[in-house]
Amino acid sequence: MSSLLRRTAAPPLRYAQRVVGAMVRPIQLQRHNSRNRELNVCIGCGWDVREGWLNTDYGPNRLDVVFLDACQPMPFGDSTVDRYYAEHMIEHVPIPQ
Questions:
Q1: For each successive 10 residues of the chain (97 residues), what is the average pLDDT?
Q2: Which among 11, 53, 55, 63 could bridge 45 via Cys, Cβ 3.0 to 4.6 Å?
Q3: Angstrom distance (rounded) from CA 14 to CA 6
Q4: What DSSP string runs through 45-63?
């Protein structure tokens, strides 16, 4: 979903997107883990989908991008992520968070 649509979408649409994204995330994580030895997480990937990484975004625009709210605790166990990567993402996080 484009960032313009994400910013202008009605609250019910954004809520539905978060609910569905959270429901589908375990399946996407399992699929990623079955194909990759390392868990490398790209936070806020947008359209820059990286091969071999778990690509995440607040408004996934592709089926292979996992919903993730960077303002919430990460849904990964302790010492399970090998690398995190975020580029040009922090400016999208509200200041209080």
A1: 52 73 84 89 92 91 87 89 90 80
A2: 55
A3: 7
A4: -TT-PPTTSEEEESS--ST
